[in-house]
Task: structure prediction
Amino acid sequence: MQFSDFALDAHLQRAVEAAGYTTPTPIQTDTIPLGLAGRDIVGTAQTGTGKTAAFVLPILQRLLTQPATTNRTRALIITPTRELAEQINTTIKQLAKFTNLQSATVYGGVGMQPQERALRSGVPIIVACPGRLLDHIERGTANLKHVEVLVLDEADRMLDMGFLPSVKRILTHVPRERQTMLFSATFAPELNALAAQTLRDPARIAVGTDAPAKTIAHALYPVPQHRKTALTLTLLEQLDTNSVLIFTRTKHRANRVAQQIEREGYAVAALHSNKSQSARQQALDGFRSGKVRVLVATDIAARGLDIATISHVINYDIPETADTYIHRIGRTGRAERTGDAVTLVTGEDTATIRDIERTLKSRIERRTVAGFDYDAPAPAANEFQRAPQQPRGGSRSFAPRPAAQPRSAGQRPAPAGSAKPRGQRSGGERRAAGN
Result:
């Protein structure tokens, strides 16, 4: 199947071609025809499968082929985090670029007035986080009486973040007669109950939910806790990297690890919910453009971050669940590109490793780095309490590697963590999380 087979409006087809879309992904193949037909949908798909375009294109097609006589909000997309809201809005703008359809985001951490203007003016598509949208509803600035299409994206993440009561309150302000699409990577009993209460005879779609993309190679690096930063720096030096996303368990640790990496001359930024929205956007923009080559983040970046150049995900701290592992590493190996998932582990992580391997249905290779001193004693002071130092020289940059080519079916991805020298470098989570 090709995108041309969907018989989209000519303006949308032009945007699809301009975006470089040719063959739909499985979730797009299954979802778009049902969305175009107006069906309610419950979709389950792993991260990085093209799910956003799968619901955005039917929304745009509906708004173009059934134009409204007055300005009003006709499509509402609810999502758990600011970053995911911006990612969805970017896709909308990309696919609507040859139309006059407008969209706006509504989330916390930024001023209310621009959002009020968008809501009052009846912008056709609103992408919102639950907390801030409820603020507007309570202030009387959000008119949702004309919503025709409702999308609940990353519903399991909204459940995890405690947004389910807020979502249920929002549902009381949208018409009962509407098309609803709910997407989630996993389905807890609460979500099944929400789907039963919210959707009408939904079509159920499940694509690739058992494991992450096959283009991702996995490796575990056992290491004492106090040597994690030193090993991370060694891996950054030796691995054949492009852009690298490093996950830590806490915001404090993300800051400290970023500082230590910066002291070695790397262009690095930290991303977590204690950062202001402008700081978060600046970090993402720098990472997306390549100006920042290492991003150290908490699980706020585990979903919705779609940057094709991420070659490696490094789990500085192992995630708490196998599901979070799948979402973290799904930031690499996207759109059929290859990627590497590296996890630093200690003796306390045995149970979590077992859960992850059970999910992957395979054992993850254990690796060591030749010449690395695993037995160095712990520093007298905690390594996360050292006083910051000035970076040495200019910012380090990675030599960009050629874009990876799509793999043929059954081809194994290149092993992660092959310690290949890179040669000489040039000198030099309620509303706080997404609302």
Summary: The domain at 3-207 is CATH 3.40.50.300 (Rossmann fold). Confidence is low (pLDDT under 50) at residues 383-435. The radius of gyration is 22 Å.
